[in-house]
Hints:
Blueprint: E1 11-19, E2 22-29, E3 32-40, H1 50-71, E4 86-91, E5 95-101, E6 105-106, H2 107-113, H3 118-137, E7 140-141, E8 150-153, H4 162-165, E9 179-182, E10 189-190, H5 210-213, H6 222-237, H7 247-258, H8 274-277, H9 286-289, H10 305-314, H11 325-329, H12 335-339
Antiparallel strand pairs: 1-2, 2-3, 3-5, 4-5, 6-8, 7-10, 8-9
Amino acid sequence: MAAHPLPKDYEFISQIGEGTYGTVSKCSHRGQLLAVKRIKMDSSSKGVPATTLREVAILKALNAKQRELVEQGKLEDLTQANVVNLLDVVYDLSNIFLVFEYCHVDLDQYLKHNVLSPYQIKRFMYQLLQGLSLVHKNEILHRDIKPNNILLAFPGDAGDRLTANASLTTPNPDADHCVLKITDFGLARSYGINVTSISANVVSLWYRAPELVLASKTYSTAVDMWSMGCIMYFLANKRALFQVRKDADLLQLAFSYFYVDSSSVSDLVSLPNWNMYVGENQVIDLGTLNAPGRKPREVDINIDDVGKDLFYKLLMLNPSKRISCDDALLHPWFDDLRKG
């Protein structure tokens, strides 16, 4: 029996996750495995939360674009799409249920029990960039790219073998064929028409771009690209690059790795929180960073030199210099995947 309400004719199998929003359950409906996200109605306004309405609208728009790609022959079918598919929206008096295609595991959980081969790291990044490219082409910022918001769907019965094939030393060959899907658009929003100011209080800290820490209100798709650089490190090293507790620590570490000279931060100096963190007697002292002979700390990412070039382009401190999604997909590191 389900621990929480479900739509009629949906059979509860197990709980996948729980948060302030509600719960996610693995369910069966007419013989199909599904993931059902239950969100409580907003009692104060007696309606559906605005964030949920926005998430549904964004997912429906992106899923429609994915269907167009299938119709155009550019995508085999929707199971191969890199943005999760929202299949239905069901209401009752107290809840709204978002019904999604079922995926076996999120990236965070998968890498707790598995390692990736160099090919798998590259393939995972390529798929995520393809999904994010669709998001950005439709003038949407995800604003919460992190391992928990990346799902893995395995073909056939490979998902049933995940536990048996788990290894911290040998890559699972089934991961050569899984499909990665970007999910959780609860913080996403359109940035196209009449948007002059947007909240900087987004993105989980370990994946947050410097311009967000510095309280930019007019940021761009570059915030998602910074997060992708952090994901690239996570794929290669099985841990987060910025394991910090507060914004100041994140900035300090980011500057130690990626600050070369004053031109590295020309986009950032005018942001509201710059003087809060940068200056004499602050957590970041440009005098020290600009000292003769000083070089950035080297990042110990476990990928080849061509991959490192992409990594550093994703993590440029200046958002205007950060590589775009489409340019990243054309990077030489992916040459073998594009030819394949």
